[in-house]
Design brief:
- The complex is a heteropentamer, with one copy of chain A (348 residues), two copies of chain B (271 residues) and two copies of chain D (418 residues).
- Chain A has helices at 36-52, 65-77, 90-102, 127-144, 162-180, 197-210, 222-234, 250-258, 269-284, 320-325, 331-334, 339-345; strands at 23-28, 55-60, 82-85, 106-110, 121-125, 151-156, 185-191, 214-219, 264-266, 294-297, 304-310, 313-315.
- Chain A has 348 residues and is an alpha/beta fold.
- A seven-stranded mixed beta sheet of chain A has the order 2-1-3-4-5-11-10, sandwiched between helices.
- In chain A, strand 6 (151-156), helix 5 and strand 7 form a beta-alpha-beta unit.
- Chain B is an alpha/beta fold and 271 residues long.
- Chain B has helices spanning 45-52, 75-81, 98-102, 116-129, 147-159, 177-192, 204-210, 233-242, 255-259; strands spanning 7-16, 19-29, 34-39, 60-65, 68-70, 83-86, 109-110, 113-114, 165-169, 196-200, 213-218, 221-227, 244-245, 248-249, 265-267.
- In chain B, the strands form four sheets. In chain B, strands 6-9-10-3-11-12 form a six-stranded mixed beta sheet, sandwiched between helices. In chain B, strands 2-1-4-5 form a four-stranded antiparallel beta sheet, with helices on one face.
- In chain B, strand 9, helix 6 and strand 10 (196-200) form a beta-alpha-beta unit.
- The longest helix of chain B has 16 residues, at 177-192.
- The N and C termini of chain B lie far apart (45 Å).
- Chain D has 418 residues and is mainly α.
- Chain D has two domains: 42-183 and 264-408, ABC transporter involved in vitamin B12 uptake, BtuC; 185-259, no CATH class.
- In chain D, the strands form two sheets. A two-stranded antiparallel sheet of chain D has the order 1-2. Chain D has a two-stranded antiparallel ribbon with strand order 3-4.
- In chain D, helix 5 runs antiparallel to helix 6 (145-163) and helix 5 packs antiparallel against helix 13 (303-329).
- Classes of the chains: A alpha/beta (348), B alpha/beta (271), D mainly alpha (418).
- Chains in contact: A-D, A-E, B-C, B-D, B-E, C-D, C-E, D-E.
- The structure holds adenosine-5'-triphosphate (2 copies) and magnesium ion (MG) (2 copies).
- The site of one magnesium ion (MG) has 4 residues of chain C, from helix 1.
- One adenosine-5'-triphosphate (ATP) sits between chains C (16, 19, 21, 39, 41-47, 88) and B (134, 144-149, 174).
Chain lengths: 348, 271, 271, 418, 418
Amino acid sequence: ACGDNSDNAGSAGTGSTAAATGKVGVILPDTKSSARWATADLKYLKEAFAAAGVQADIQNAQGDKTAFQTIADGMISSGVKVLMIVNLDDGTGKAVLDKAKRAGIATIDYDRLTPNGGADYYVSFDNVKVGELQGQGLVDCLTEKKATKPVVAELNGSPTDNNATLFKQGYDSVLDPKYQGGEYVKGPDQSVPDWDNAQAGTIFEQMLTQDKNIKGVLAANDGLGNAAIAVLKKNKLNGQVPVTGQDATVQGLQNILNGDQCMTVYKAIKKEADAASELAIAIVKGQKPTTATGTIKDPKSGKDVPSVLLTPVTITKANVKDVVADGFVTKEELCTGEFAAKCTEAGI
Amino acid sequence: MAATPLLELNGIDKSFGPVQVLHDVGLSVYPGEVTALVGDNGAGKSTLVKCVSGIYTIDAGTITFEGNQVAIHSPRDASGLGIEVVYQDLALCDNLDIVQNMFLGRERKRGIVLDEPTMEQMAGDTLASLSVRTVKSLRQLVASLSGGQRQTVAIAKAVLWNSRVVILDEPTAALGVAQTAQVLELVRRLADNGLGVVLISHNMNDVFAVSDRIAALYLGRMAAQVKATEVSHAQVVELITSGRSGNIGLPPEKPADFNGDIVDITPGGDK
Amino acid sequence: MAATPLLELNGIDKSFGPVQVLHDVGLSVYPGEVTALVGDNGAGKSTLVKCVSGIYTIDAGTITFEGNQVAIHSPRDASGLGIEVVYQDLALCDNLDIVQNMFLGRERKRGIVLDEPTMEQMAGDTLASLSVRTVKSLRQLVASLSGGQRQTVAIAKAVLWNSRVVILDEPTAALGVAQTAQVLELVRRLADNGLGVVLISHNMNDVFAVSDRIAALYLGRMAAQVKATEVSHAQVVELITSGRSGNIGLPPEKPADFNGDIVDITPGGDK
Amino acid sequence: MSTTTTTTAGGVKVVKPTVASHLNDYWGRVRGGDLGSIPAVAGLIVLALIFGVAREQFFSALNFANLFSQSAQVVFIAMGLVFVLLLGEIDLSAGFASGVCGAIMAILLTTHGMAWYVAIPAAMVTGIVIGFLLGFLVAKFGIPSFVVTLAAFLGFQGILLLLLGGGKNISISDEFVLNLANSNLPVGLSWGIALVGVIGYALVQLNNVRSRAARGLVTDPMGIVLMRIAALAIVVLVATAILTQERSINPVLNSVKGVPIVAPIIAVFLVLWTFVLGRTTYGRHVYAVGGNTEAARRAGIPVDRIRISVFVIGSFMASIGGILAVSRANSVDPNTGGSNILLYSVGAAVIGGTSLFGGKGKVINAVVGGAVIAVIDNGMGLMGLESGAKYIFTGIILLIAASVDAFARRRAAATGNR
Amino acid sequence: MSTTTTTTAGGVKVVKPTVASHLNDYWGRVRGGDLGSIPAVAGLIVLALIFGVAREQFFSALNFANLFSQSAQVVFIAMGLVFVLLLGEIDLSAGFASGVCGAIMAILLTTHGMAWYVAIPAAMVTGIVIGFLLGFLVAKFGIPSFVVTLAAFLGFQGILLLLLGGGKNISISDEFVLNLANSNLPVGLSWGIALVGVIGYALVQLNNVRSRAARGLVTDPMGIVLMRIAALAIVVLVATAILTQERSINPVLNSVKGVPIVAPIIAVFLVLWTFVLGRTTYGRHVYAVGGNTEAARRAGIPVDRIRISVFVIGSFMASIGGILAVSRANSVDPNTGGSNILLYSVGAAVIGGTSLFGGKGKVINAVVGGAVIAVIDNGMGLMGLESGAKYIFTGIILLIAASVDAFARRRAAATGNR
Ligand SMILES: Nc1ncnc2c1ncn2[C@@H]1O[C@H](COP(=O)(O)OP(=O)(O)OP(=O)(O)O)[C@@H](O)[C@H]1O
Ligand SMILES: Nc1ncnc2c1ncn2[C@@H]1O[C@H](COP(=O)(O)OP(=O)(O)OP(=O)(O)O)[C@@H](O)[C@H]1O
Ligand SMILES: [Mg+2]
Ligand SMILES: [Mg+2]
């Protein structure tokens, strides 16, 4: 952090060729909605910046908007040249982006677009798409199980998390036609505060008490999925009732290998992190980034934001090995103890 | 003096859960007179006072003030009628200082602002008149006062106001010789100014020194209410300890009557 | 009796922040004797007691017990030496019942289990010996006791143990006539059994009735410690109120000396 | 009234109560507001009726069994908090402390491949160490417990994140640990334990009466004692009868019956801590310090040591709560012990009648209060409301349950028994 | 020592203090442990030094200015909580109450297109209504405030979700509201307000001395009064001087200078509530009820009304906190007022020296404590630690700040002044 405020007058915003040294600030949102922020993104971003010899200050706001802004204030006052954020909500996101812009700092929306935020770049997966994959995954598993008129329970993410709403939008777009067509029966549908796994356990246990015929569970991520699986196990129903997930966590993948979970959604976070860090490094080095070839329309301002867009992938037992091959999880983490045999079976 | 009592209690009953503490108690307080309320420890004196001042609600009985039956539901009602009480357990706020305690609930104001200088001056005057010699500052917290100093503050608090009836529950228990004399003098002065005064005390010398009437409680019953001049020291002590003395007092004790209430242990046998 | 004091205090100083309460106080307590500690309200009697019992740490001075200098840092140290105290503010736990309070810190056990029957029996015996007549149950919470009943419990608590020195801070303040007599008798009995007893009281009759020596505190200084037989009632009152009487007591007061401590208000002028 | 008067040593006259007089006395105390846990139990019954009417599944054997494991973590933390609250202190870190202990167990089981009989004690020891640290800071440094445990609340969150490598979930597969919160006792054993419990209670009660009578002290009339024993027997045996019914969702596939294992675990700790608080010197001292610290100090009670000890008990119980939470979830994550767990636990103790100002409370309060919280969560889960409405109803129902209690105590205040 | 003795009416001898004797006296009180907010301020300075050494940016004008808006929500909620805590009550719902009030303002501004001068008062009125409801339940129904506000904590979370249509964020664009937390006063006005504040303080102090002297009562020596005024003047004017420096990162693009608008808002409420607590009958009664409810009741104080009123003040201040939070975030979301806001706010009050048992505390405590919390958050933000470590360090630093205070008070206890 030394010496970098000597050139804080240099505008690094739009590709001026100032000094090649400069710091990048990254604010990640939380650790509760998904383990990825603390385990994957942090690691990949750090590696990428280190490899490029660019200093990076990466912090996590722990789901706290106030902390989010405080961290941003700190980064701005410590003179970063690029600020990359995963917003916690539109408003704070915009407030931070505005403040950064006023200070002449280049901005990147990472993973979540801040509507009307006016970030210079956007790098992301499509969250609605994630939901669609989950919905489709569940449909596939139910088809495979030859379930007739199965009752489907939905265990949604945190009611206060906008992403959870987007996921739900995605999987409902797949499931709703099935409900309406009478193929599936809509079962209980509840949200889990704070993505809290323990509460998810109680909520799902009560769903099952209320309707013993639940034959499929759409769980919004692997943690919630695992909570549902724990309850199913208790009732010896695991493996018979398909459960979905997201994030391709070790836990989720192990549940898939066990046959307790039907699918998860893998977001190649390394790709996302690399894309974003590439942008940031270019800006810091005073070059014009070339990788942001796509664009996405800001729904509020109507402007086109230069973007890097990545596609999520469905993971089932058949392609668990791809995740390992990608280096997202290591074989050692995944194939502990009893899973060793199952790993071999799955070709890992 | 006047033949009609200022404050009159009739048939007061009071129980705490299964324990009945007051049985059909009556008491008359006359203006210009000091009525001493005496009784053994646990006879129910303090309970009776708290019934009058609205801290406890009575189970049965009537309270008459200046000839009108009144209902006293809270200490506010009592002070509204002009009844001031010095409680045995003092009831001071430890986190406030002497002046703040003395004017609690009746602060002097100038506009909306507390008039501290006036209050401080009045408090100082009152305390000085009660022979308080060792208080270091009027702004000392009550928590740090000595036992006697606390009691003086509580007394000073009650006499600052224009009231009709003043009830003092063992006011001199913790006081030194000089302070006790001052308080007894004050009690007499209050009565002479036409107030009704009730003084609770275990000290027979004090009782006979200032009181006009003596009311003796025995195990929650009013044993007798007599003129101070009509009884002797020894008679009062007998009333206190056994509820009767000669032909005054309660009818001979029927044990079953007292034991009728469900109680676990009734210590009582003199060894 | 024995010429060496059981407990001896020398040169005790104690301040609370800027206020010095005890100045160079000395006191000797002899076995088999009742030493009365007298003084005006706020003279520092209770403070002195709390210094001895380890509630307050002294600023200067020495405490000698049976000829050995001792350091008393906590009430445990004091009771370890065999010093029992009845505090003026009683120090009972309102949320515990009578028996529980009386045995607090020294519960009887059978194995690891509390021996409630034994404790209840012992408590009942002790209370009965103190003329307690109106306690409804030994399992009554202390919070619901009358003032006098609470005081009796505190006294009973202190005399249950085998101790060397018993200090009673105004133990009879709230007691009735019969109970007071019992407590005075108890005090005398303790001394006769060879204990050192310190009795604090504002009642001169009580003081002269039981004490062998009288120590008078005046504004935080020890004015005199004399044999009870050598002084008169009036002399003691004079010692209390002015610090000297004839040729005993403090040298004539030098106001600057007392005012040397930074204090805001020193009420003191008799009107 | 027919009372027989006996005289014991020491000249204390004793009125020997009869069954009638005892009931009368009890009624007097109830009217006078000395209610024990009646109001909280009444609140519980009211709640159960509300939910039972709204959803028929509420009164199923399955749902009844669910309640035990659902409430376990909160009940355990609350039982420990009762000790802390009895001293007028607070432990905001209990929730995350349970998470940390659970995580330590999970890590030892999985990453280090240790057996449950190593991992579980390790978690408990962690709890004890945590409690000691908290207590030491509060007692010896004199920092208010709110601040110490707020700092610990933050610190343990961090430790949990670090332990879990920055937010991963760790799944456990140790059968023994998994069974703790998810399995049931065999039917025979269920009945056995229930009978042992009832008989044990009866023996203790009768022995009590006998030993007091032998001293000539007042005893409760035999009729009352027998009624008390009968009441407990009915509750325990009826509950056992329900729980030994078949309640499997899919009886063809597998059979689920028997008392959930957590039930006797809760019962054991309930009895243990009730015994400690009511029958030992230590418990007496805890109440004394909570009621009047200065009086306790003057009585020679080592106040600092008591203060440290309650935090140790608090964190120890939290560690057991954490172990059960991990068992139930089959995994541990950075939010184990987070969210509302702490507020619910303190709430459980307070609803049950424990005072935040110290000196007043029983361990059974935590269990009854925990049951209230669990029933609300359980019932709301059956209602299938959307999140916003669910929060609001949970709040309202909590308020209803608490106000039953408040109204009862209100009467108490009116009669002067506060 | 040279003391002059005067005699006032009533025969009370008065020792008139001199500057020397006053300082001596003050030192005696400090040694005796009567420390006011010195320890908390000392803790604050220690913290600032730690962070200043670790990160040079900590001591920049920009960072100093950031502190105000960063601490605003916690400080406002804490100021309100001081009243609640003074009565020995607690308000767990203050955080979400501020969120609800903020949401109401945002909705009126955006969905209903109302002006700020309608929306802001509406939010404040909402706060008052909330406080009234809470207070009513606590005072009239006698439900413990922990339970009532726990229920409200849940309920408001639900209301917030419903208001925001199930988890959406509402962004606001009203300039006036946005400026509240994000803009600064012009340099001229900054100086003007600073001077008015200093002069006002001086006048009040001098007038106080004059009016007491006129009655012949003891007054602080003039030297001490002047020193106090000088100390305030220095603090205020130095702060103003720093804040009126240019602190833009990019002064070419835009200029940022002047005192943040929140600073005078905090100051106004600090003065207002300090006045209310210290100089009005109402404030006196709040302390009395908190110190000894029964004594207050016997003195004829309407205890229930006081109890309700503190909840009203608490929720009212929370509503202002909510307004500023929404302003700072440019938006409201279902977690506004959630997370650690509540614990931080209570912590702020407690660190500053307010007791959870009632009767002891000042509004300035909340501001100093809020500053401690804000400095920790701000400083940790500059350190760039990873999440786990950050939590742990935050906890440790909080503990350090609090132990400065605890050690000081520890001495106080040793001298008997507890
Ligand atoms: N809240 C209560 N619950 C149960 N019993 C109570 C309660 N308050 C008082 N008592 C009982 O009522 C009786 C009368 O108490 P009270 O305080 O009126 O006595 P008293 O005459 O003032 O005695 P003293 O001279 O000792 O002050 C006592 O036996 C006491 O134990
Ligand atoms: N904690 C304290 N802080 C400041 N002053 C105190 C403190 N405790 C006692 N004092 C003062 O010390 C003096 C002596 O108090 P102490 O209680 O020893 O008096 P006492 O002789 O027992 O009087 P009493 O007969 O009224 O009980 C009093 O003036 C009192 O105000
Ligand atoms: Mg009394
Ligand atoms: Mg004393």
